[in-house]
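Give me the fold.
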Amino acid sequence: MSITTTEEYRELIDAPKYFPCISVIMPFEPKMSLKNEIQYKLKVAKEKIEKEVLASYPEDKVQPVLLKLDRLLKELNYNTHKKSVAIFVSPLIDKVYYLDIPVKERIIINESFEIRNLVEEKKEIKKYLLAVLSGKSIKVYLSDHQKLIPVMLDVPEHIAAYKNIIPEKVGNFTDATKRKETMLDKFLHHIDKGLTLLIQAYHLPLFIMANDRTLGHFKKISHNQQSVVEFIHGDYEDKGPDELLLLMKPYVEDWKKIIQNKLKEQIDDALGHQKLAFGIKEVWKAATQKKGKLLIVERNFIYPAQHGANKEDISDYEPVGSNSFYIKDAVDDIIEKVLVYGGDVEFVEEGFLDQYLKIALIEYY
């Protein structure tokens, strides 16, 4: 979204009230929904847009924009495996993005649009992992769209699988008790390894339910305690998915706090693997190189800039007469690059990224 400062261009963007910008943001999963159903929703959206813009703008200014929109809708790719589509149309711009992020359906008609509007429209789906642990077994669930889906670990999920690891013969009651404790620790050690793989695969908040005794043993041997949002004390191994979902409600109410804690953990991990770019110039370079897995940026951070010697470099914007090209907001451009190349974006509150100069990018690794 680089912007030239030629006189013609300036005249165009300085008179926005005559030129509507249309943004259509919709769920778009052709592999999950019938094509006819999606086309009907787009038809309804188009009719709503036409009615609104014709009531608010001169017809001769509206028709070229509507023709662009009609063309883009007819050319949509129904073979995509993405989750949503974002369509931006104005006299200057017509763009379509197929994205991996879930969104709410929304139509925006005004004099401008920014790519961060799209990120703000992300549907807040409370996705997390729940491990229900007892002294004998573990059940793991993925929360998705208000239901719990069973997830398999890559290790045996019942203590019986580890029975032969510990010698069977015992001499007295004390030995038998010690053997049970040793078996429990061995079982939990393997479970912890399985949870490590799960955390690495999903990158989601993790909750663990267990009784006091099991949690005591688990905390002594676990390498994943920093990844656990909360340990929930109690015997829940006999509860079904619907009951567990209800039990989890009070623990996921402050979702923003949960997500920010998870983001902090992901930043620390990426930093340890030397896969974290931070500061606007380093993040721009990494995003341009298609390395962006997750962009984390303070909500109100805006950064005018200008291009450097090559496309991977930017410098501070200097408003001088000879400067023919500038970037209105480098943050918007970075968001666009990350989304288009399959990454995700999270906004955080001001001050969250103070030590990272307001913007950080976790790279693929």
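Residues 192 and 222 are 6 Å apart (CA to CA).
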